[in-house]
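quick one if you have a minute, typing this from the bus. below you get a single protein, a line of residues and a line of whole numbers that encode the local backbone shape. could you go over both lines and see whether the tokens make sense for that sequence. anything you notice is useful, everything is just below.
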Amino acid sequence: MNLDIDILELLLPNIWTILAQLCATLILFLLLKKLAWEPVRKILAARTEAEQSKLDAAAKKEADAEKFRSLAEEEVENAHKAARKIVEQGRKDGLIAKEEIMQEARIAADEMKKKAADDIEKQRVDMEEEIQEQIIQVAMAATEKLLNEKVNENKDREYIQNFLKEND
């Protein structure tokens, strides 16, 4: 077995190889910087700007949505207030209509009472006139009887009293 291998040579890297690798890396880095760095940076800047504009647009839309939500809530509250006003006005109108109907009913009832009282009064007057007419007829009949049987004054009084007693 040949163990002539130099261990130190294997352990330490070759300086020329290291320098060549460093130069190649530096050349690649410079080429990359010269050729790709600016375009990549521009692409990243454009992407950052696009994402920022999307974020700004989203924030604006969120602000608009919040504004519209508050406007919608305000409109709903106004609609509720208007509905309450309409209901309250309807209630008031209903009460007014009720009072008007009650007043008209009272007036109609009063008119009916007055008409009934007038009818009763008219019937009473008619009956009194009729009774008076009957009394006159009875008095005429009694007078006729008295004249036909004229005896004396006491007898006349007696006939009239009897006649009145009979007709009461």
Q: What stands out?
A: The chain has one domain: 7-167. The mean pLDDT is 86. The helical segments are 7-11, 15-148, 153-167.
